[in-house]
């Protein structure tokens, strides 16, 4: 297997089903374009006469739309930008901070990454969408699920402040888990 000699860009993208690595090779002499997602080749084009353009593909179990834009900056210099769901990576990640909560925890020596999608109330753990049971409680809602025989619950409680909205808290075996910053 040839080593990635024309690797020009690498991005790490945190989605609900995990953190994905996107790598892009661009051979400006051969016109080659190769996109790898998590080390797996997704797109390979040889002898592209047009060196600028766009490559579109999907990422992860959720088949999230992604695109790499190739733009000429000057002479033989190129700029590569990644878009996720039609937004620049920066805008996508800023929006994701508002629409999801992420917790990283270790149970019995294994690391778990738990993600709550606030709009759908879907819960993901290490890339798998979890089976959950929701219930209304006195001060809000509770979403129950199990991770490695540990009882987990995401409590959703109003902050009482409009700007803050609803506060989501993960509780595992009666212990509150601090939210992770990705």
TrEMBL record:
Record keyword Cytoplasm present: yes
Cellular localization per UniProt: Cytoplasm
GO cellular component labels: cytoplasm
GO biological process, one term: apoptotic process
Keyword list, A-Z: Apoptosis, Cytoplasm
Keyword Membrane recorded: no
InterPro entries assigned to the protein according to its UniProt record, in alphabetical order: FAIM1 (IPR010695), FAIM1_dom_sf (IPR038513)
Record's function text: Plays a role as an inducible effector molecule that mediates Fas resistance produced by surface Ig engagement in B cells.
Similarity comment: Belongs to the FAIM1 family.
Name under which the protein is recorded: Fas apoptotic inhibitory molecule 1
Lineage: Eukaryota, Metazoa, Chordata, Craniata, Vertebrata
Gene behind the chain: Faim
